[in-house]
Design goal:
Length: 263
């Protein structure tokens, strides 16, 4: 098993490798990652649909949702929330800030298009007709609830979410075998879903899927549209995700393990 210090050293090089990829490869890997997260999110909605006890429904969702991140770690993909850890490489002066920001932009856009693509596919392919249309209603209800979170609450839930996601990624680097990586990342992801924290890339599926479902299944909501998605949820959640991943985990572990050596 790699120690936390060894993981910090590994991530210095990982960050440099991520920022030097060709743009088109980076975008395609990000598109796939967005699709994987969206599919995990869809599955989490399916298993919870119709569960009358909210706590049980949330637990079932949390047990399934991590499959998306497992696919990214094992099959390959670039996830914006995990890539917030590139900040370690910047702080260690192994990567330029401009290179990190470029990577974030490309990966964020790739994640967005991948997640929205799955949102459109499951709606126009009528996957949401499951449970006599109950799944479509649940998808819309979830999207509506997310655009009604206050800016400050969405930001804080975004901080807490990516604190857990980046800890999950960090733990996965402790192991060199597949099962160790899966087990290492699984529990922190389960934790953030159970707690109802906000993940920007997951919301790139949850809310657009609700927007599409309004029209495909005739379940209108006056407050659910692209503007409310982008401004009331995605913006604060993204800011929170950056703080939780880059500052709390990235800078935190850099200060603990690398700052004296880098000085």
């Amino acid at each position: 098993m790699n120690t936390p210090l060894e993981i910090a050293d590994i991530y210095i090089m990982v960050g440099d490798g991520k920022t030097t990829q060709r743009t088109w490869k980076m975008f395609l890997l990000a598109f796939l990652a967005g699709a994987y997260i969206a599919l995990g999110a869809l599955a989490s909605q399916i298993v919870a649909c119709g569960i009358e006890t909210p706590a049980i429904g949330r637990l079932l969702s949390a047990l399934v949702f991590p499959i998306g991140l497992v696919m990214i770690i094992i099959a390959g993909g670039e996830l914006f929330t995990g890539d917030c850890l590139i900040f370690i490489s910047v702080l260690s002066k192994n990567t330029y800030m401009s290179a990190m920001l470029r990577t974030w932009l490309v990966v964020y856009l790739g994640n967005f298009f991948g997640a929205v693509f799955i949102s459109a596919m499951v709606n126009f392919g009528h996957v949401l007709t499951l449970f006599d249309g109950g799944l479509a209603q649940a998808v819309v209800d979830t999207a509506v609830s997310k655009v009604h979170i206050s800016f400050s609450d969405a930001l804080i839930k975004g901080v807490l979410c990516n604190f857990m996601v980046c800890i999950a990624v960090w733990i996965s680097f402790a192991s060199d075998d597949i099962m160790g990586k899966i087990l290492g990342l699984y529990l922190p992801i389960l934790l953030f879903v159970v707690c109802g924290f906000e993940h920007s890339v997951a919301n790139m599926y949850f809310i657009p899927s609700g927007i599409f479902a309004q029209h495909v299944y005739n379940i209108p909501s006056e407050t659910l549209h692209w503007g409310s998605f982008l401004l009331k949820n995605l913006l604060p959640v993204t800011i929170g995700n950056i703080i939780g991943g880059s500052v709390m985990v990235g800078m935190g572990y850099w200060l603990i393990y690398l700052t004296e050596r880098d000085d």
